[in-house]
Write a structure and sequence with these properties.
This protein is mainly β. Helix content is 14%, strand content 48%.
């Protein structure tokens, strides 16, 4: 069990990433788990950009995250899930990957749930690319954005950008709560690099449009 607690004070900005990919190996009879609690003050900003999650053969992984946001705070979270590979090129078959995000908006009237984003990947008969499950793809990218400036126009822009990449992508919006709206983008591909480029292009639009900043370059590799 790995526990992470993150607090971003009012008016502060935080870019949070990892040192390298998160690798989950065999978990016989159990599962690896990460629990994360995030709280943002008024006008606070969080960019959560971990390296890819790699699930190997017979791995089970659960990630539970709770976000408590002020109506004026901003969160951008991008993740890529990748199946592990063997030296001969055959795909390792993981058992389960579950990512659960609770996003709460805290205002003077109390905390209210904006979105419950529950992603469960449990390959049927351990076939990670099966039709009706991953539609022939092996990798999944996810982008979650919560900000008062999220709207249908932004969703349409990100959808257009996603079509420039070799991936199958969908974008949807949450309801608006206390002036804040959420956006969820899911993308299927056969390449970690392609998904990283797609998510980088989308987050680059947000950085330039909202904050006047260049696309993110973490210079890790």
């Amino acid at each position: 069990l790995f526990v992470v607690e993150v607090g971003v004070d009012a008016g502060a900005d935080l870019l949070l990433t990892t040192q390298s990919a998160t690798k989950v190996y065999r978990t016989p009879g159990s599962f690896a788990e990460q629990r994360m609690c995030v709280r943002l003050g008024a006008g606070a900003r969080l960019e959560l950009m971990p390296d890819q999650l790699i699930a190997y053969r017979e791995a089970s992984y659960r990630q539970n995250s709770r976000f408590s946001l002020h109506p004026t705070s901003s969160v951008v979270m991008a993740e890529v899930i990748t199946p592990g590979w063997s030296p001969d090129g055959a795909s390792f078959k993981y058992e389960e990957v579950r990512l659960r995000n609770e996003i709460w908006i805290e205002s003077d009237s109390g905390a209210k749930l904006l979105a419950l984003d529950n992603l469960l990947m449990r390959p049927p008969v351990n076939d990670v690319t099966g039709m009706g499950f991953m539609e022939g793809f092996s990798h999944l990218g996810s982008l979650v954005v919560v900000d008062p400036r999220v709207d249908q126009g932004l969703a349409d822009d990100l959808d257009r950008i996603s079509k420039e990449f070799d991936a199958y992508t969908g974008v949807s919006l949450t309801a608006t709560l206390a002036g804040s709206t959420g956006l969820v983008l899911r993308s299927l591909s056969n390449s970690t690099e392609e998904l990283n480029k797609l998510l980088g292009a989308c987050t680059g639009v947000l950085r330039e449009r909202w904050f006047g900043q260049a696309p993110l370059n973490l210079r890790k590799y």
